[in-house]
Design goal:
Blueprint lengths: L3 E12 L2 E12 L3 E5 L6 H9 L6 E6 L2 E3 L4 H7 L1 E4 L11 H6 L16 H14 L17 H14 L4 E5 L7 H16 L3 E5 L3 H7 L2 E6 L2 E7 L6 H9 L8
Helix pairs in contact: 5-6
Amino acid sequence: MTGELVRMERINKFYGRVQALKDVTFTVRENEIVGLLGDNGAGKSTLIKILSGAVAATSGDIYFKGQKVTIRDTTDAIRLGIETIYQDSALVPHLSIARNLFLGREPIKGAPFLGNMDQEKMNEVARQLLKQVGITKDIPPTTPISSLSGGERQAVAIARALYFRSDLIILDEPTNNLGVEETQGVLRFVRNARDSGHSCIFIAHNIYHVFQVVDRIVVLRRGKVVADDIDPKKTTIEEVEKIITGLAEQPVA
């Protein structure tokens, strides 16, 4: 069994008097895709926002590659190797594919103090990455994001995470509002990410999509972990749905 990449231990989060997370312990192993499931309000988004640096936990500890870490903001998370791909892809619509791939991390040519971006390098890398993530159309890297389909935008966001060699890729509802072909493309990207040595957290309301790609399922309900070691190969969608809704219980390991 591979070692733990991430361990979030006894995480609590309060919004005023409302407790969104209650003593949550959550792990992701190296080269593992974990499906994080739960109804609306279960705490999924809060948990990944803490891990991605978007919000701070009220209490609890986070370990990354065995070392206790402090994630104060998204910059800290990215520096550790945690990349988050939200439903809207967090892309800038009026900028090109190449610019979005390198946003905030643009390569510089010539004297650093001049700040001249190496556009040729960005374009070449963009061409290679688009092929790597399965876009077969010849889309120029200068194309603005606003001209792309939903699936193509998700592909660009995933390509960015792959290029910067993120150890952990968090995908928050990546298949929402996508067509059948684009959805299969995103699911294929997730499988390829694991094969390339990355770990993923996959969050989706569509449990059928989760079952197609994950190695293990964790279920949150009302801010608590109610199951954390469900093997999709040894259970059914109906059984997991019962755990999500509280009609069935599975002991937490």
